[in-house]
Specification:
By secondary structure, the protein is mostly beta strands. The protein is 12% helix and 34% strand. The strands form 3 sheets. The protein has a 4-stranded antiparallel β-sheet with strand order 1-8-3-6, with no helix packed on it. It has a 3-stranded antiparallel β-sheet with strand order 5-4-7, with no helix packed on it. A two-stranded antiparallel ribbon has the order 2-9.
């Protein structure tokens, strides 16, 4: 009998909260999946360096009209577009990719490419590189 009374009390409290006026309380932690990817933009499988590694995180701001030089990445690089529109052209595959706010970029590995901000707003990217610990960066500029 106590179980039934306790359950009834719990349901009454929960129902009261469900029908209370005003905004519902925000949960203390909310997780919204953004992406789950296993290939680069050009279809390469994502593989990580063996042994001790490093994660390098940076924010890139690319001015309107600016173009990144022709370059490549020897290790996996990921970006999240915070603002603006970025156009990336892969010179090795002749593919062009356009990324907008909310998009996840899985950069091509060891393929020559360049990026350009063709919009009127700055492009802001949150960039994550994964490299061996003895590597300082993940960009090789083509000459």
């Amino acid at each position: 009998m106590r179980r039934i009374a306790g359950a009834a009390l719990l349901l009454t409290v929960l129902a009261g909260n469900a029908f209370a006026e005003g905004p519902m309380p925000v949960p203390p932690i909310a997780v919204k999946p953004i992406a789950s990817l296993d290939k680069t933009a050009s279809g390469q499988p994502i593989t990580f360096p063996q042994g001790p590694g490093r994660v390098i995180v940076a924010e890139y701001v690319i001015a309107p009209g600016a173009m990144l030089p022709l370059h490549k990445h020897p290790y996996p690089r990921f970006a999240y577009v915070l603002q603006g529109t970025l156009e990336v052209t892969d010179k090795d595959t002749d593919q062009t990719f356009t990324y907008k706010p909310g998009d996840v970029v899985v950069e091509v590995i060891d393929q020559r490419h360049l990026g350009q901000n063709k919009g009127s707003d700055a492009v802001r990217l949150l960039v994550l590189d994964t490299t061996p610990t003895d590597v300082k960066g993940n960009v090789v500029v083509e000459k």
